[in-house]
Amino acid sequence: MSPMTITKRQALWSVPVFGAALAALFRGTTANAETFEITKTDAEWKAALSPDAYQVLRHEGTERAGSSPLNDEHRAGTFSCAGCALPNFSSDTKFNSGTGWPSFYQPLANAVAEREDGSFGMERTEVHCRRCGGHLGHVFNDGPRPTGLRYCMNGVALSFTAA
Which domains does the chain show, CATH number per domain? Predict the structure, then answer.
């Protein structure tokens, strides 16, 4: 086989990889077109946030499952955006989803916004802070009652204030 020959396996693998790269590219242009109450330059965000929070909130990264202390936070209180301190979730709606990320069945009123996320070849709904646009995580339809939703959040994107 010559170096320029592509096997069927290589061709099949290239389709989802290339598609995911294109989806991520186009998804980024949509997100950047939105405007938010709190805006900062990339350098200002980088200076204001920890490296992990910066990667998640500003570049839609994901923390390693089970790595956030907030996953085991069970006190009464409020979970707020680590980027702008807007209260996002009440401890009253937090539950143990078994996923390794803090999970809630409902956000606070007027706290988050959502957009479709087709990155990595998956169809998901991304959740971000409605005030600063910081990426918080994703919402899924496999949560508990009363909503049936699971807001699976990156703990590094949130801060906790006890009641």
Answer: 8-162 (2.170.150.20)
pLDDT in tens, the chain (163 residues): 555 455 444 444 444 444 444 444 444 433 456 899 999 999 999 999 999 999 999 999 999 999 999 999 999 999 999 999 999 999 999 999 999 999 999 999 999 999 887 666 777 799 999 999 999 999 999 999 999 999 999 999 999 999 9
CA distances from 34 to 55, 93, 132 (A): 19, 28, 10
CA distance 136 to 152: 8
Distance CA 90, CA 64 (A): 23
Q: Which of 93, 105, 92, 103 is nearest to 68 (CA)?
A: 103
Give yes or no: 152 in active site: yes
Q: The tokens of 158 are what? A: 């949130």
Q: What share of the chain is helix, strand, coil (3-state, %, to 5)?
A: 35, 25, 40
Residue of 81, 84, 132, 152 marked active site: 152
